[in-house]
Amino acid sequence: MGLEAPRTGSEPLFPVTQLQAWSQRLLGSRLSGALLRASVYGQFVAGETQEEVEGCVRQLQALGLRPLLAVPTEEEPDSAAQTGEAWYEGNLDAMLRCVDLSRGLPESPDLAGKTLMQLKVTALASTRLCKDLTSWITKPGVSSELSPERLAEAMDSGQNLQVSCLNTEQNQHLQASLSRLNRVAQYARDQQVGLLVDAEYTFINPALSLLVAALAVRWNSPREGGPWVWNTYQAYLKDTHERLRRDAEAAHRAGLAFGVKLVRGAYLEKERKVSQLQGTEDPTQPDYEATSRSYSRCLELMLSLVSHHGPMCHLMVASHNEESVRQATKRMWELGIPLDGPVCFGQLLGMCDHVSLALGM
Ligand SMILES: Cc1cc2nc3c(=O)[nH]c(=O)nc-3n(C[C@H](O)[C@H](O)[C@H](O)COP(=O)(O)OP(=O)(O)OC[C@H]3O[C@@H](n4cnc5c(N)ncnc54)[C@H](O)[C@@H]3O)c2cc1C
Q: Which UniProt keywords are listed (predicted)?
C-alpha cells in the first residue's frame, strides 16, 4: 500500500466557496475568519501526488485551514496472518512518509500551531491482538502485567516482552507492533508532527488506549514538548466522561502532557449489533440527545482542564455539529483560552453527508 493518495476521507475535496459559506454560517463572519485562521483542521482527499496535495493545501491556507493527513489503510486482509508482519511493516512505511509529507507541506506564516496527522493503531497491530489484549485487561487484577510503563519500557529497550495471556506468536507480534508504534511516534516527534490516534470499536478500544498510554509515557513527557500522541474519546459511549476524567487525572499525576480528540463516535450501529448478538449491555448512549449531552460534558471538562493546565492539555473539537462548535468557542471566550492556543477544531470536509447536515442547520 502506498502513500500516493494521502487522504482522510473517500470523497473529493469540498468546494472552498461552500466551505467558506458554511464556516460563516456556522460561526458568524467575524468569528469564522478569526477562528479558521487560528485553529481549524480540514480533512479531505488531498490528491494523488505531492504536487496535488500541496496545491490543495495552498487553497486551504487561503482560508486559514490546515490539513490533517492520514494514510488510507484498507481493512486488515485475511491474508495478514499468513504474510506475517509484512502488511503492518508496509503500513509503517506509508505512515513515516505521511509524517514527511505533513511536515513538508507549505506553511503559511500566519497559521500558528502544530502539524497533526491521524494514526490508526490497527494498521500497525492486528485487530486479533487488540481483541485478545482487551479481553485480558478488562479482567480485574491483571493490570500490572500490562501497565503502560511496562509496555513503554519494552518499546524503548526492544527487549522481548512476555505477556502470559498471549501465545509465543502473539507475544512476538506484540513486540513488533510496539516497535512500529514507537518508530512512528519517534519520527513524528523528530519532525514536530502530533499523532491523533483514532478510536475504533469497544471490543478493541481498551487495548488501543493502553498502547496510546504507553506511547504517552515515552513521548508526552514535558521534556519532549508534546503532547505528540493524542487519544480519541467517543462521547456516544456511556463510560466516556468518567474515563476522560480518570485519564486526565492520571496524566496530570504522572506529569505528562495530555492530548484529546473529542468525537461523538462513528460505529454506533455495529456496537449495538454486537452487544445484541452477545446479549451484553449496549455500551452506547440510548439516543442522539444523550450522546450530545455527553459530548457537551466532555467538552466542558476538557476546556476547564485546558484553562487550568494550559499547554499541558490539548483538545481537538472534532465535530460538524453547530451547537458543539458554538459551545466550544463561547466557553473558550469565557475562560480566556486563546484562539491560537491548545484548542483546535477538526472537520471531515470530504464527508458530504455530515457537511451537508451542518450546512442545512
Ligand atoms: C476530524 C475528525 C476525526 C474523527 N475521528 C474519529 C475517530 O477516531 N473515531 C470515531 O469513532 N469517529 C471519528 N470521527 C467521526 C465522529 O465520531 C462522528 O461520527 C462524526 O463527526 C459525526 O458527529 P458530529 O458531532 O460531527 O455530528 P452530529 O451529526 O451532531 O452527530 C452524529 C453522531 O451522533 C451520534 N448519534 C446519532 N444517532 C444516535 C443515536 N440514536 N443514539 C446515540 N448516538 C447517536 C453518533 O455518534 C453520530 O455519529 C471523526 C470526526 C472528525 C470530524
A: FAD, Flavoprotein, Oxidoreductase, Proline metabolism
Residues facing 118 on adjacent strands: 196
Ligand 1 pocket check for 240: Cβ under 6 Å: no
Distance in angstroms (rounded) separating the CA atoms of residues 176 and 239:
31
Termini Cα distance of the chain: 39
Distance CA 230, CA 255 (A): 15
What DSSP designation does 42 have? E
Per-position DSSP letters for 304-351, written without gaps between them: HHHHHHGGGEEEEEE---HHHHHHHHHHHHHHT--TTSSEEEEEETT-
Quote the ligand 1 centre to 254 CA distance (angstroms).
30
Q: How confident is residue 8, by pLDDT bands cut at 50, 70 and 90?
A: very low
The model carries a pTM of: 0.86
Residue 158, pLDDT score: 78
**d(Cα 265, Cα 274) in Å, to the nearest integer?**
16
Supply the pLDDT for residue 46: 62
For ligand 1, what atom is nearest to the CA of residue 285?
43
For residue 123, what is the DSSP state? Answer: G
Average pLDDT of the residues in 38-50: 57
Provide mean pLDDT across the span 238-242: 98
Residues 192 and 114: beta-carbon distance below 8 Å = yes
**Nearest alpha-carbon partner for 311 in 342, 334, 336, 345:** 342
Residues 338, 307: contact at Cβ < 8 Å?
Answer: no
Looking at residue 10, the DSSP 8-state letter turns out to be: S
Q: Give the number of residues written for the chain.
A: 361
Here the cell at position 360 is: 442545512
